[in-house]
Amino acid sequence: MLAYIVRRLLYAIPILVGVNLLTFVLFFVVNSPDDMARMQIGVKRATPEAIERWKVERGYDRPLLVNTEAKGLERVTDTIFFDKSLRMFAFDFGQADDGRDIGREIRTRMGPSLAIALPTFALGLFAAVSMALLLVFFRATYLDFWGVVLCVGMMSISSLFYIIGGQWLVSKLWALVPISGYAGGLDAARFLVLPVLISVIGGVGSSVRWYRTLFLEEISRDYVRTARAKGLSELAVLFRHVLKNAMIPILTGVVVLIPLLFLGSLLVESFFAIPGLGSYTIDAINAQDFAVVRAMVFIGSLLYIVGLILTDLSYTLVDPRVRLG
Amino acid sequence: MMAGFQPVLLWTDALLFLLLLAGVGVVLHARAQPPLRQAWRKVGERATGMVSACVLGVFIVIGVMDSLHYRPQLAQLEGAAGPSETYSAEVLSLLDRVLEPLRLNTEKTYSAPLAATLYQRETVETGGGQVRTYPRLQHGGAHLQAPEAEFAPDLARRLGHAAGLAVVASVALLAALAVGLAARHGGPIRAAAAVLAGRTVLAWRAAWVACSIIALVVAVVVMLAPYYHVLGTDKVGQDVLYLSLKSVRTALVIGTVTTLVMLPFAIALGIAAGYLGGWVDDAVQYVYTVLNAIPSVLLIAAAVLMMQVVIDTHPHWFGTAAERSDARLLALCFILGITSWTGLCRLLRGETLKLRELEYVQAARAFGVGTTGILRRHILPNVMHIVLIALVMDFSGLVLAEAVLSYVGIGVDPTTISFGTMINLARAELAREPMVWWSLAAAFVFMFVLVLAANLFADVVRDAFDPRWR
């Protein structure tokens, strides 16, 4: 087991290097730092001096890959690639354009993001699995048919409308919760109810449909017939056999998402003005703050890889036949 | 009136037409191949398949009309020197031409659907002094003398006309169907009866009902649009119906061109990785794991930011504003394509792994058929159903993604009319007092109908082509 985890972690390194190279090419080779400076300062005010000052301030005045002027190890370390890309592996993300430390910002903003993402994730999973089981229990009836129709309908509504509609109905018309904002501690619940509810409702359509097909596939297997033949009730079959055996595909889709919860949801957080990582990313995109976007890309890919490993480990928990090695 | 015009072929137009051509090719090919014809017939046998195809067809017609671009010739000034023919810098489309009254009849600001006055009071100079009142619109309901009294009868009259037109169209459609199916059912009368009773092989009754409803909606719009703002106007007085119809093309381009862009990569790499194995497989898997590892919104955001810089720093590449926003639209398609080919690639790799071990492929290899020959003749045709299913399933997701990305500001150019930019502009209007709801409602309804039709169609296609499903 331990050997397996170590090997998987070693596999992760080339992938992270790939991600890093890709973002490096995207951010610094496709566009030179000069272009970036011009965008930031504004094309009209971008004199050569202003561009130079902008680059020096942010450390973009060095060569990209090899510094021919420096000596020894500095030939490699005193470059944009080393400073802006390789340092990320040490979780040193540098400064955002507004001068704040990105690492600290990420640590403080992780809390609010998790406060929304974890309940959303848990409630969403629970709602989707139980509704899918319900549809499967009543399969080939009108309830099943209209349930699927409802799911397809809900899938066809853009998430923007769930948020806009929910905010308008619950916060403005009924005035049950504040429209947006955030507070620390227990006070946060007031602000969190609506975004969590909206995210759950917005995502339930497609996941119910997905779980329903999973369960239907499982229910046509031989062991289910055996279970029914020995006199188990349909409910027992569904919960004790079908749900248990459908765990592997469920885990495959779900566990990868858990680490990504840290990143929060771009849309929900920015609509509800929640100071999490999602809204941080959106603000950085709008402000064209490349350092922040790169840091988020790096963290995102790191978490994805962690998720993949967790997925494989979780298989051993639900299915003793799976041996990792 | 317009004297002449200069046709303009934007990049996305060219790709869209290429896709249409490919679609026609697929139809012709499917007709010649019995198994494919069988599968498509299954699509036609289902009422949902026929209805969603009809609805999608309407959207495609709108999108194609909006993709025939041209630059109108400018009227020659009296005695002006210079070239004999000058063309406007503005790029219009056939749809713009058809909707000319909607495009040009802009009001001052918000007006409600079918209103004859502005939505908010303004101070108006009358002969005697100033009055706070709702000013009359310049175009909406301008033909009415006294809107309060005349509006209802006028509306009823026009709706009556529309209903009449729709009934005529519906009967004509039924007649055309009856004539078309006459040979199969022994005479047009019997064929018509079979359609009405739902006894035809394909679900023609459902299609007929759907087309009749579409005809009714179109007739109502055609009767009302020249005289009223059917869906109201937005903040700068643009007709919301016009904006909604223009958004359709953007959604279609994103939904289809993106898949066109990614398809060659996905197919070539997926099949090569699955069939060749070894280092090719490792390399392809590495590439798609790296791309998958980056949260797609961030990858898109990063790429769009970069592209924006490139476009902004090279203004001389683009002759007109339309070309510029088109370049941005195309780039967005590329970027979305790059982030979305990995899923299909993985599916194709898995399927190819399975296929290469089958007897007939092994036999072909034993007979000395070359690798390219096997890939082209045995593997490719046998994975095409996966490609087709992925194509139709991805479409709705991409349309939804466009709206979200444009809303976030990393989607289409802000000057391109799309559902995302419409929602973005309309969002603040809900907070107004009294509320302005029609822009959002229009974007919602149009998007919902389009995506719902696409989802339903995709389901039917998957059922027909994927034997393992259900």
Automatic annotation (TrEMBL), chain A:
Pfam families: BPD_transp_1, BPD_transp_1_N
GO process terms (BP): transmembrane transport
Bilayer-spanning residue ranges: 9-30, 114-138, 145-169, 189-211, 250-275, 295-318
Main localization, broad class: membrane
Topological category with respect to the lipid bilayer: Multi-pass membrane protein
Signal peptide: none
GO CC aspect terms: plasma membrane
UniProt keyword annotations, A-Z: Cell membrane, Membrane, Transmembrane, Transmembrane helix, Transport
Domain ABC transmembrane type-1: 110-314
Places the protein is found: Cell membrane
UniProt cross-references to PROSITE patterns, sorted A to Z: ABC_TM1
Family per record: Belongs to the binding-protein-dependent transport system permease family.
Record protein name field: Oligopeptide ABC transporter, permease protein
Organism, as annotated: Azoarcus sp. (strain BH72)
